[in-house]
Amino acid sequence: MFRYQHLPTSTRVSGAEVSGALRGDGPAHKRTAARMSIMGAESVKRRSRNKVKQVSEPVARRRPRRHLCSAILLALVCVGVYANSAGNPFQLDDYPLIVEDPRVRDGAITELLTGDYWYTDSPTVQYRPLANLSYALSWALSPSPAAFRWPNLVLHFGVCLVLFYLGLELFGSFVVGLVSALLFAVHPLHTEVLNLGVGRAELLASLGVLLPALLYWRDADPETSSSRWRPVWAGACFALGLGCKENAITLVGVVVLLDLWRWKGGAYLNARWWRRRLLRAYAPMIGIIAAFLLIRAAFVGASFHSDAGLDLHVDNPIATPERGLEPGESAFLARWGTPVVTLGKSAQMLFWPTRLCCDYSYAALDTVRRLYDPRLWRAGGVVGLVLLIVLLSMRARGKLALCAGLSLVTYSVVSNFIVLSGTVFGERLLYLPSAGACLAVGLLAEWAGKKVRTEGTLRKVTAATVLLLVAAATVWYAGASVARNRDWRSHGALWSSAEQVNPDSVRVLVNRAATEAEQGDDSASLAYALRATELVPDLWRGWRAAGAAHQRTGQLDSALRCYEEAWERGAYLDEVVVLGLSELLIYRGEVSRAIEVVRRAIAGRRSRWGRGRFRLAELLILDDHTEEAVSLLEVLVREYPDWNAPRDKLAQCVAPGS
Description:
Elements: H1 15-23, H2 29-61, H3 64-82, H4 94-99, H5 102-106, H6 109-114, H7 129-141, H8 146-171, H9 174-186, H10 191-194, H11 200-219, H12 230-242, H13 251-264, H14 271-300, H15 331-351, H16 374-393, H17 399-411, H18 434-451, H19 457-487, H20 491-501, H21 506-518, H22 522-535, H23 540-552, H24 556-568, H25 575-587, H26 591-604, H27 610-622, H28 626-639, H29 644-654
Helix pairs in contact: 1-2, 2-8, 3-8, 3-9, 8-9, 8-11, 9-18, 9-19, 11-12, 11-13, 12-14, 13-17, 15-16, 16-17, 17-18, 18-19, 20-21, 21-22, 21-23, 22-23, 23-24, 24-25, 25-26, 25-27, 26-27, 27-28, 28-29
């Protein structure tokens, strides 16, 4: 059955002409019959094209040798790009989540499966038990960073391979699958995930979205043989991804988007198909999400934010849009305009990943407060350009629109539009959304490959230029990733490169102060710390760094003043501030005040803070509360049998004549 609007103008006929041709009368019945025969031929051609299109996808799957060669190529590319990162040390969140977490070091499986993702205090409550368990398994094999980095690289190869098959299945094109997978393998935005041990959570969550999406897509294909195990494997992969990171929940939106795209492409989806889809896809996904939320509520609570003394605005200023507003500035723009800026920045970096940095918070990416903020208009222009390309692609089947939809759906949970996340922006957050962008480039390469064989010099030149640009981008991405890996070789190199991109980031300045202190340059360390306090005086991290620098140089009064400033601004859970402030209070003879400081810090922390409790025991001894100190030291000796300091102090307390 044909549609009238799909016919060329020359072949359209009126109802009267059709009835006349059927009766065999009328002056133009012969001409009309001829035109109807042309219409029938056009309909047959369309059905033939649709038939070829429908069978091309299953045929594309039956190329095992070519698929094996593609997998080998992807593996070689992944290893070649990230081989120089194998010796890089632990960085950033690797320390609190791996190195300093006793549950990971001791292999406490029960605590890892039932506890918070963060052993130390955090402004957000996160439940990622399977990610924590994978860290413990790698630590049991070897406590070196390589024991985390190589498995992460294998997972990255797995994501690339799944993306290859996803492009092959969705678009029936080997070129789309291979080009998108190669771009994904070498994309510079992924260097942060691959250079962090804790990037495994992002990798497993991405597998928990893309692999079930591929399985559910095949399960919904009428031409694919039905399998009772395909939905089971898809559900298991989804549960694995959800147990590693919460953004795997976007699988529901991805599956809905793919089903709508299948329906828009002309597939006849009757009520029976939708009932089958509900039972085999949507109901299991909703059940897995409900079970995860119930288990999460039972172990860590239903809240997504903790009562810790760490302000969320430090990492994500969108969480407190009214903070620091001046007359004429808008809290509405700070809340809703800033995510527009980060969306535009994300769209730009997906295709032009330059000036990469490990930190975009702490005033590096400030909120939008005025309507004439140039960042808001630049971001609006980038988003508008993307939407224009998507709308133009809707004239066909909308393949680019599908790719954009995949990126937007997977980016939605970290965009700060729907829910507030723990950070305002981060390159690691674009790992999964970049899959849609890579598929779009693969479609562009496929289009150029077809046009380069057509007639017309202009078309050939345009198509050849596009192919050269895609090839050049792939080579450039690979070189940029190799160069970016070198920035992660040490703390000094990482924060030095970050300073070049975001010199106004308080976190960058504070870490530069720490790296200068490690190198013995206390004057440079103090300069960076004071710069941080001048830039954002109401944040305590700069005051902490300044206090530590003053304390190392013997300026105890200045150190005490800086620690007190940090304490008043909410640093009563920070170990450096609490221990440094209590030590200086002891120096000034204010033991009772030092005890109050340490007690408050211990009461506010969720974790067992050994050093803080040991400092409290020392203060209690100085304040003649020996009995309480002995009880506290006995607990520390039992909890930390390899720690000699509590045992020695306890021996001094119980010794005769002490």
